[in-house]
Amino acid sequence: MSRKAPRLVIGGTGSGCGKTTVTCALLQSFVEQGLDTAAFKCGPDYIDPMFHSRIIGARSRNLDAFLCGRELVPALLANSAGQDVSVIEGVMGYYDGLAGTSSENSTADLAVLTRSPTILVVSVKGMSLTLAALLKGFVDFSSNTIQGVILNGISPSMTNYYANIVEQNTGLHVYGAMPYDASCAVESRHLGLVTAGEIKNLKQKMRILAQHAREGLDLSGLLALAQTAPDMEAVLPELPQSGAKLRIAMARDEAFCFDYADSLETLERMGAQLVPFSPLHDAHLPQHIDGMLLCGGYPELYAKQLSENTSMLTDIRTAIQHKLPTIAECGGFLLLHDKLEGEPMAGLCGGTAQMGKRLRQFGYITVTAKHDSLLCRAGEQLTAHEFHYVQSTQQGDCFYAQKPLRKRGWDCIHATETLHAGYPHIHFSGNIPAAERFLTACQRYHQEEKT
């Protein structure tokens, strides 16, 4: 089924150039105009989509060719695209892809894959004519869909000055400028920006950004550019079905908030009923559950509070010991340690976990199963992503992880017939056999509990 999907990719010259600021400003502006607007994020980031979601009032989705597969990404985009416009925020620098040495899986790659016109955000601080040389390099470096530029960090009164430099020397159209506004700044910490839910005046910040966008950007021109995007096929593949509506407890609160909308919807399309619960605030697990998802997040920031919720820790420990099929990723995995930041946890994977001073094992990986377990048979692989500062003394040895385009690898993940616990994050849309094996185990548990 083909559908019209007006869309823009917001790429950037590098991290910190203002992609998220511009994306949020555009989303808020379009929403305030009453447009049916959708938001997407290129790559595996969890935090930027939280800001998008708060603005548009619906889940922002990740488009990741490594985690989901190149064939599926255009359909995921088309299936959830806005009727009026979709804004796709890029990742890192425009051409930065796998292993830092390839443009594969970069913003540029996604823009070409989805045939989406691209606006490049550039911080112009400290440049004049050099800006033209920089942008000409982006245009000439490789095949791309760059159609225009948004200048970041300058007064709109300077737009014409810079626009003349850019347009006369590169042929790119300048769609305006955004000023730097300290009142709209968002704090950062070890995994990136603080989450949207932690910012009490977020809506006010977004409205200010939208006002800057109305004053400094050619919004009608950007919408017209989005309309030039070709139609897309919105047919998602058929999925295997579980025999019953399986109740899957899913951790979701301030400490556990990292999940992919399309990944969860894949489970739902296969027959899962996701039942949210809070390891921080709830005293017990939901009743009559057939499986459990402990997603990533920031449990290290809430270690004492989690530790003091002894009834919940007891429920989680008991459920897993009684063979409840469970997937625990990164933050969820930390919850299963003996201790996190010195505080007692569920004590199922052994070891202790402590914040480190630097990023550990960052990037895409492929993990290969050493033996049969919950998600994989021996020799089968999962595409995954790691990003963490917390270091575990027991990160597991049931899978072997390896970075693409590199020889380096390491052991990881605790895995049994009913438990999969480790740092790597997976996306079920790109790992359908693993989703099927998980739900099959949940179905088996469901039947055993009935008898």
Which key terms come to mind for this protein?
globular; 27% strand; alpha/beta; seven-stranded mixed sheet; seven-stranded parallel sheet
In a few lines, what is going on in this structure?
The protein is an alpha/beta fold and 451 residues long.
Would you give an account of this structure?
The protein has helices at residues 19-32, 47-56, 65-68, 73-80, 107-113, 129-141, 159-170, 202-216, 219-227, 261-269, 303-308, 310-321, 331-335, 432-450, and strands at 2-3, 7-12, 37-42, 61-63, 85-89, 118-123, 146-152, 173-178, 188-189, 192-193, 232-233, 246-251, 256-258, 272-277, 291-294, 296-297, 326-329, 339-340, 343-344, 352-369, 381-392, 399-402, 409-412, 414-415, 419-422, 425-426. The model has no long low-confidence stretch (mean pLDDT 94). The radius of gyration is 23 Å and the shape is globular. It is of the alpha/beta class. Helix 6 (129-141) packs across helix 7 (159-170). It has 14 helices and 26 strands. Strand 7, helix 7 and strand 8 form a beta-alpha-beta unit. The strands form 6 sheets. The protein has a 7-stranded parallel β-sheet, sandwiched between helices. Strands 18, 19, 20, 21, 22, 23 and 26 form a 7-stranded mixed β-sheet that branches. Helix content is 32%, strand content 27%.
Low confidence ranges: none
**Inertia-based shape:** globular
Q: Roughly what percent helix?
A: 25-40%
**Strand composition percent:** 25-35%
Mean pLDDT: 94
Helix vs. strand class? alpha/beta
N- and C-termini, Cα separation = 44 Å
Question: What is the oligomeric state here?
Answer: single chain
**Biggest beta-sheet profile:** 7 strands, parallel
How many whole angstroms does the radius of gyration measure? 23 Å
What is the count of β-strands?
26
